[in-house]
């Protein structure tokens, strides 16, 4: 009798200690050669494969590795390179590859946006004038490497053509482009089949979104073509991040296996399976281990789910796998020996998830895994029963939320007049989003402080000196509203996680956000409570150095939970409200200390939207509530700012207004100003800053470019509403380029102010 097999969908690229990131940045900074980069990344790649092999995973993904982003990999595989990078044909060189993502002096970087509702960013393909061609078979290269070096008969991973095109720009001729791509994909598959590959994983997460049923015909046509061109190659059509609206139709598509998410599906996948059944000629790849969160699986509950699935799909036609790629979680909790034992016992990072997959697979195959199951139960019982998840005061406060006022005293039109009276800002006021460059010196001082090489007093003196230096830089630049620079913070979410009860920071819990940018999401493992002021000291010190207003800088509840690993034993909105109550006290403390401009950033609000529109209203209502819970207790003349990025804002413009922030800043330059179209259709009554240059690229924009972005916005937004700012925080940029770009921004603004004096 055939056995149940285990499978993985993708493995973290970063390495246990961010070795991948360091190799990339050393190459970009000309510290290592291309040959060294290729050698170092190959070693990391093979190490990851060997770990999966040693863990006992049956179907090991290959080709999930990337030098930057898997969507960008797909673009260069098919020669889809924007014209401004002067590519003609053939294999895309590594430097051109990086230029597409990072930009260069005479060419802006391609747009970057969030991968569905995760915190991973992909490089948006640009299809205008695209003439697809197969430049290299990356999947074949990685398949043959794994087989040659480790004896692994791997499962090549591809991004499916429909998902790829749906995520791209300039896809107006969707069917025409699809018809061009499909034969090229077919060539990739045929070469894999010829090389001996048995399985290929083709990711089509678009299937888990809301779309018109007629679009299923594209999938039928595409995958019929693939089976015809490579009939011996088994195709696993992989979906993830949600349930399938058209489950009955999707499972009948002409492939050998269907991958379904049984974790982030709201219980709908098992219901659909039991309602519609499953074809007798297919394998069900059941995603039962959470690929996006870090909490230990309840193996007994997971096995019960698999047994329930097995009543519909015989065990010999089952594959056990994560709900998605493990790209979204850290590598191993073995790197966190200093964590509290109870918390550590409740965690499961990528390597531990592989072990969970193997344990469940063995259980289905009637092998003895009693010890693994008992250990999992003990770990979960300990954390669920701990005082961290049973804070009576926090739980009582949540029960009493109906008694908390979440409305400003005056409407916006009245309170903005009070704010203008004391702020006395010029037309088109300039500011930044919050952070300034975290130089090597800043990072070293923080490291020395954490290692106790320097004292608390020495570290605080350094932070104050750096804050004062940047206050003077901002004054010299003639910015209107200043920030303290956030030199004491490692990350805008992690920092708050270090200060609030119920959170835990990690040392090596790194995950990829975009390119070489890695973040350490804090662990929200218990009830969240305010214990001491978080930002007041630094904000007050910065304000004492200048007569210009300095913004207090906070991160809002939904972003904190979207960019954290949140406990999975209570609903997210409960955690968001706990965070909101805690931050409400911080906002009040800032105001009491004399900080009268307070920015509460919500950049992840849009990215957290459920993939199904039917779930949007509750999510957005909950998001607005937690934001107002945080911000509405201030006086009318205290100005509340917020910031958002990477989004199609037309979908949520009503929600943005409902937040009732006095000023909102929004990314616009990376998407080449497309958000401005929203304001051509919708009147917005509050003040707004549309980011006028892209901070994710090292290139310095010209004054003319920035003026072009400002002028375009002023066609649809009243100048009296408009603020001028960069797209996002400047933490990842270098000092020289930051100052140059901000100087261009201020100069551009001043020139336009002069024009308004003459013409308005």
Automatic annotation (TrEMBL):
Its EC number is 2.1.1.14. InterPro entries: Cbl-indep_Met_Synth_N, Cobalamin-indep_Met_synthase, Met_Synth_C/arc, UROD/MetE-like_sf. Its cofactor is Zn(2+). The keyword Metal-binding applies. Zn(2+) binds at residues 643, 645, 667, 728. 5-methyltetrahydropteroyltri-L-glutamate binds at residues 18-21, 114, 119, 563, 607. Zn(2+) 1 binds at residues 643, 645, 667, 728. L-homocysteine binds at residues 433-435, 486, 601. GO terms for biological process: methionine biosynthetic process; methylation. The active site is at residue 696. Keywords: Amino-acid biosynthesis, Metal-binding, Methionine biosynthesis, Methyltransferase, Repeat, Transferase, Zinc. Binds 1 zinc ion per subunit. Pathway: Amino-acid biosynthesis; L-methionine biosynthesis via de novo pathway; L-methionine from L-homocysteine (MetE route): step 1/1. Catalyzes the transfer of a methyl group from 5-methyltetrahydrofolate to homocysteine resulting in methionine formation. Belongs to the vitamin-B12 independent methionine synthase family. This is 5-methyltetrahydropteroyltriglutamate--homocysteine methyltransferase. The gene is metE.
């Amino acid at each position: 009798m055939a056995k149940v097999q285990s499978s993985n969908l993708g493995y973290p690229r970063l390495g246990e200690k961010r070795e991948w990131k360091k190799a990339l940045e050393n190459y970009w900074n000309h510290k290592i050669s291309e040959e060294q980069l290729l050698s170092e990344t190959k070693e990391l790649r093979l190490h990851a494969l060997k770990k999966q092999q040693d863990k006992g995973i049956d179907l090991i993904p290959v080709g999930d590795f990337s030098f930057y982003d898997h969507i960008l990999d797909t673009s260069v595989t098919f020669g889809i390179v924007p014209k401004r990078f002067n590519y003609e044909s053939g294999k895309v060189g590594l430097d051109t590859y990086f230029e597409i993502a990072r930009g260069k002096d005479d060419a802006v970087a391609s747009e970057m946006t969030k991968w569905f509702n995760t915190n991973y960013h992909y490089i948006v393909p640009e299809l205008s004038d695209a003439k697809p061609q197969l430049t290299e078979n990356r999947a074949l290269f990685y398949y043959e490497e794994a087989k040659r070096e480790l004896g692994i008969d791997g499962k090549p991973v591809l991004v499916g053509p429909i998902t790829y095109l749906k995520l791209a720009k300039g896809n107006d001729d969707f069917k025409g482009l699809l018809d061009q791509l499909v034969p090229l994909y077919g060539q990739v598959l045929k070469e894999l089949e010829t090389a001996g590959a048995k399985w290929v994983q083709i990711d089509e997460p678009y299937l888990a979104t809301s779309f018109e049923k007629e679009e299923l015909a594209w999938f039928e046509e595409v995958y019929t073509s693939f089976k015809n061109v490579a009939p011996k190659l088994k195709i696993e059509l992989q979906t993830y991040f949600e349930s399938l609206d058209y489950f009955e139709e999707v499972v009948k598509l002409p492939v050998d296996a269907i991958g379904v998410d049984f974790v982030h599906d709201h219980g709908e996948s098992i219901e659909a399976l039991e309602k519609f059944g499953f074809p007798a000629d297919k394998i069900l790849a059941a995603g039962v281990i959470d690929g996006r969160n870090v909490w230990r699986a309840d193996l007994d509950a997971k096995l019960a789910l698999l047994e329930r699935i097995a009543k519909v799909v015989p065990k010999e036609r089952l594959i056990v796998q994560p709900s998605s790629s493990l790209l979204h979680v850290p590598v191993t909790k073995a790197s966190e020996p200093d964590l509290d034992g109870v918390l550590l016992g409740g965690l499961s990072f990528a390597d531990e998830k592989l072990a969970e997959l193997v344990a469940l697979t063995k259980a289905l195959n009637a092998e003895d895994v009693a010890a693994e199951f008992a250990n999992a139960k003990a770990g979960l019982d300990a954390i669920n029963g701990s005082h961290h998840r049973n804070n009576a005061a926090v739980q009582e406060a949540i029960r009493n939320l109906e008694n908390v006022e979440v409305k400003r005293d005056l409407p916006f039109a009245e309170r903005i007049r009070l704010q203008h009276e004391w702020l006395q800002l010029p037309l088109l006021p300039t500011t930044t989003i919050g952070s300034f460059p975290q130089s090597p010196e800043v990072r070293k001082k923080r490291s020395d402080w954490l290692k106790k090489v320097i004292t608390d007093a020495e570290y605080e003196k350094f932070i104050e000196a750096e804050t004062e230096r940047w206050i003077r830089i901002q004054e010299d630049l003639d910015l209107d509203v200043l920030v303290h620079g956030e030199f004491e913070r490692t990350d805008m979410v992690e920092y708050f996680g270090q200060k609030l009860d119920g959170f835990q920071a990690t040392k090596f819990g790194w995950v990829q956000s975009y390119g070489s940018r890695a973040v350490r999401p804090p662990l929200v493992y218990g009830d969240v409570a305010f214990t001491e002021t978080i930002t007041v000291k630094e904000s007050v010190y910065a304000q004492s150095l200048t007569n210009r207003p300095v913004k207090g800088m906070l991160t809002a509840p939904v972003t904190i939970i979207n960019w954290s690993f949140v406990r999975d034993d209570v609903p997210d909105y409960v955690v968001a409200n706990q965070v909101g109550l805690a931050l409400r006290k911080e906002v009040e403390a800032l105001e009491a200390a004399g900080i009268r401009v307070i920015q509460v950033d919500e950049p992840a609000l849009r990215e957290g939207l459920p993939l199904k529109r039917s779930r949007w209203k509750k999510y957005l209502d909950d998001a607005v509530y937690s934001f107002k819970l945080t911000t509405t207790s201030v006086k009318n003349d205290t100005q509340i700012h917020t910031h958002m990025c990477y989004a199609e804002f037309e979908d949520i413009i009503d929600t943005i207004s409902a937040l009732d922030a006095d000023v909102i800043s929004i990314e616009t330059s990376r998407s080449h100003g497309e958000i401005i179209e929203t304001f051509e259709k919708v009147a917005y009554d509050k003040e707004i800053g549309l980011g006028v240059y892209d901070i994710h690229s090292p290139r310095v924009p010209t004054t003319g470019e920035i003026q072009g972005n400002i002028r375009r916005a002023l066609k649809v937004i009243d100048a009296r509403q408009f603020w001028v700012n960069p797209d996002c925080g400047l933490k990842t940029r270098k000092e020289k380029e930051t100052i140059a770009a901000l100087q261009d921004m201020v100069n551009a603004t001043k020139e336009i102010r002069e024009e308004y004096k003459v013409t308005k």
